[in-house]
Amino acid sequence: MNILIILGAVLGGFIVLLFALRIWMAIKMQKMQGKPAPELPGRLGKAVRKGTPTLFYFYSPSCGACKAMTPVVQKMAKKGKSVFPVDISRDMDTARKFSVMATPTTILVSEGKVQQVFIGPQPETELVRMIA
Question: DSSP assignment of 61-90, as one string?
């Protein structure tokens, strides 16, 4: 009986810790809104300097939630939209510059500033609305 109480307490503590971590990440990401976008090299930097709404989608191939969202974002990017999928396993530097701490994370940059930050999967309609 005592072992069940201990296991319940450990499990409850773990769940509370996960929720606290999620809240902390959300607060940290919200603080980015309104701040200047980081300096980026190449076509990513050119897109930010252009000033038009640009969507940065940070994902990982091993992320379960990303597996459903990534094809949608890649389709949008191929249509010539200002959408940039960033595989954090290949481009950790860009993820660090944006302070990305979880995948999927979607960041809307417009006029050189971070406008919105979304952690977790987003529906296609929301992604289209962001860059319209």
Answer: TT-HHHHHHHHHHHHHHHTT-SEEEEETTT
